[in-house]
Batch of 2 targets.
Target 1
Amino acid sequence: MNKYPYTKCGLPYVWLEDGFEIHETKHGTGVTIAEADQLHKVIASVIITSSNSIRGQEIRFLRSALGIPQKSLGKLLGVTRDAIAKYEDTKTKPVPTPVDRLIRYVYAEVKEYPGRQQRFCDIFERMEETAFHEIVMSRKSGKWKADYRSMDY
């Protein structure tokens, strides 16, 4: 059997040796990929553990795998939505090293602890909107609790 160029994932260098079925549909030739979600997790793992620089096409793939919009990824990485769009549009150019390292970490962290990306996006959103807070600690029922309060200057 021939290898199948899995360009639908957005990465022109991914080929499938097996795990796919080509069939005819009323709309033309179709392809069924076995366990596509697992395939994407493995592709993402290869990307984030590779010694190759991450390029725009990998940023788009990882962002898509995380299921977040450009604006949210920008907040997680400390850049604008427009910067993410620019990285993604320059498909084969390596992204800046700090962005490369952060996207690897963010992907690994979020996949290990689902739901964290929204929590961090919320935190980063509040960071931009609010003044500095003081942290007031109290002990209730034998446990420490933190309360954030705006500081009046």
Target 2
Amino acid sequence: MLPAIRKPPLLPAEFFRPYTEQMKRLLPEGAGFALLGADGSVYWSSLERLPADEQVLERLRACAAPAQLHSPEPGVMLAALPVLRGSELMAAVLLRFQPRIAEPAGAPLDRVWRRLRPVLDRLGRELARAITSARGDRAAPSDELEWLFTLMTELHGSSGETAAFEQLLTSAVEQLSASFAALAIPDRQLDFTCTSQTVEHEDAARAYQSSRSHLLTYAQRRTAAYVAVGELTRDSFILCAAALPAMGLGLIVGNRLHVRLSETAFQYLVCGALFVCGVPLLLK
């Protein structure tokens, strides 16, 4: 057992419920896992016994990548996954699962890591914010709304559109703990990409490069149709620019709702929205 696991958790178990429910759905059938804080406290666990590797948290801090642990059971894999905020270790997930038959070495851990990575990235952001608020640290990083306002102010005062677009991508990648971002404007012959210095995910850049030509062709065809019918005017561009802050706010609120809603609550929400939208149609 890890010696630091006796510490009480800083946050209530209800905070982690949306994340643990998502991980249950994403993990292979029969898999068990435990969610540990960066100090070794147990946030949530379905494992009867935790791995006895006392250096697991130090290993995750050093490599900031998944680590395979020694398993005394044949045919069972033990692994540790980091929950990061940038390069800082916020928590760790200990996994116990059975790999597929005849799977190459390293493939099972890589497969699970790819599936859980989006959930763990969101957990890292929310965990950093929640722990900072619980400790009453007033010197914490700005929340999303403050970041969005600051970003829009800086972009408004930028000396050129190229620098503004580059700053927009860089800031978004850092704030969202993303691995890669791209922005292409075919009519202006502008194409910007930004790769994170701390979050490695080569597949995102490769996927964009392989699909870039198809995406640009599709966008150019749609743009030509809008120009032909006179929909692209100066007023439409002004309206789009004015809507950017609201779009960013919508993304932030949507992300918060997505990670906090359970599957049952989401089903109720969708059914309620469909009911409200259907009532006017029935009355007509």
